[in-house]
Amino acid sequence: MDDPDEIRSYRDLKVWQKSMDAADLVMDLIDTGPLSKKYRLAGQWEASSASVPANISEGHELGSRKQYLAHLYHARGSLAETLTFLELFERRKLVDTDRARTAWNLLIEVRKMLYKLISRLESGSEDGSGPATVNPET
Question: Which pLDDT score is estimated for 128?
Fold first, then answer.
């Protein structure tokens, strides 16, 4: 019988799932507000938000801890960029304050999960058999 906590792919990682939710929310904020008219800035925000789950999945599939960590650092950088755009756009009244708060909270949750996953991989606390052994809660 399959173990429900077994990680068979990056799609089983909670951090990937949450980062997909966050990217989807960012895209919705762009599509439904005044940002849809600001193509260059909206495109940069969309790209940075989509880069977070993309880097998590790419790093996970590469197979080595070193490559995985490098991609998780890229995801963390893209997340910081996404948060910066969110704050700027809220200041400029280009996103609704309540929806911005929801997005901020979700992105911060993803950031905490990324920090935890990176810390576990850096400490070598896993059994060393590769990224697939990482706790599915992250």
Answer: 36
CATH superfamily of the 10-122 domain: 23S rRNA-intervening sequence (1.20.1440.60)
pTM confidence score = 0.86
Question: What share of residues in the chain are helix, strand, coil (percent, to 5)?
Answer: 75, 0, 25
Parse the chain into domains and list their residue ranges.
10-122
117 has pLDDT over 70: yes
Residue 18: partners with Cβ closer than 8 Å, 6 or more residues away: 106, 109, 110, 113
CA-CA-CA-CA torsion sign (89, 13, 113, 116): negative
Residues 22 and 52: beta-carbon distance below 8 Å:
yes
Please give the Cα distance from 102 to 130 (Å, whole number).
34
Residue-level pLDDT at 2: 59
CA nearest to 83, candidates 119, 54, 112: 112
Angle between helices 14-31 and 97-123 (to 10 degrees): 150
Q: In 3-state terms, what secondary structure has residue 128?
A: coil
pLDDT at position 39? 75
Q: Which of 81, 76, 80, 82 is nearest to 24 (CA)?
A: 82
For residue 57, which amino acid is it? S
